[in-house]
Write a structure and sequence with these properties.
Layout: H1 11-23, H2 28-41, H3 45-58, H4 68-79
Length: about 80
């Protein structure tokens, strides 16, 4: 069996974790383990990339996308 020790210094995080554990009738450690498992079971970065490409493919081909570098330059010039 492997063990991981996590120090949580943010009282809000501990409070929320405790509330979740109470709601699910688990210990805080068991709730943290379930959260880690569910996070690891979620879509992998590769799947997110595929989803982003699928969304990009829905954009009409005649629509011109703005140049992000140009938008950053415009923002800097406006703020400067």
């Amino acid at each position: 069996m492997n063990a991981i020790n996590i120090r949580i210094e943010d009282a809000t995080v501990v409070s929320k974790l405790s509330a979740l554990a109470n709601a699910h009738k688990r210990s805080i450690e068991a709730e943290a383990l379930e959260l880690i498992k569910s996070g690891l079971a979620s879509k992998a970065p590769f799947d997110r990339l595929a989803a982003a490409r699928a969304i990009s493919a829905m954009t009409p081909s005649d629509r011109v996308q703005p140049d992000s570098l140009e938008m950053i330059r415009e923002d800097r010039a406006r703020d400067g």
